[in-house]
């Protein structure tokens, strides 16, 4: 038995469009245009072949509303209380306020309503000066742990930055620290 008789007979389609090599005396752009035209003809032929070969497959129209869904607009979700202790919860709320309401420097509250670190703590303390003082003390300690003892105050640290990424992150870290201290 010969080797040829073991393999199944498969009809391979013969491509009717062959891309001829462009003449060498053409400019580079002209050769690219000819190759592009040849490839476009081959792709068009393949698309027609695909349509013919798949025409017998039954399909049902799909309603995109059954497939594409999005979240329901239920309004803004309240911030979960991650910390049960008052100072940690205050710092968490201040962090969230800075994150969503905006951060500023050189003032407690700017004209757009953005707040500095101290302004956010003061707003979230809601008049409880003892709670505010404790939160500022923990925040200053968190800042000094990261940036050294050269930091004089929370406002001076806040105002040393052009963007709020680091100050906002430090308020979040202070919330973690207050929680670890059960404050």
Which terms would index this structure?
mainly alpha; disordered N terminus
Describe this structure in words.
The protein has 183 residues and is mainly alpha-helical. Helix content is 55%, strand content 0%. It folds into 2 domains: 15-67; 86-180, no CATH class. The model is unreliable at 1-9 (pLDDT under 50).
How far apart lie the N and C ends?
89 Å
Q: Which segments are poorly predicted (pLDDT under 50) over 5 or more consecutive residues? A: 1-9
How many helical elements? 8
Structural class: mainly alpha
Biggest β-sheet strands, sense, barrel: none
Number of strands: 0
Oligomer: single chain
Mean pLDDT: 83
- Bin the helical content: 55-70%
Number of domains: 2
Summarize the structure.
This protein has 183 residues and is mainly alpha-helical. Helix content is 55%, strand content 0%. The model is unreliable at 1-9 (pLDDT under 50).
Furnish the topology, listing elements before pairings.
Layout (H helix, E strand, L loop, with lengths): L2 H4 L21 H27 L9 H4 L18 H16 L15 H9 L3 H19 L6 H6 L5 H16 L3
Helix pairs in contact: 4-5, 4-6, 4-8, 5-6, 6-8
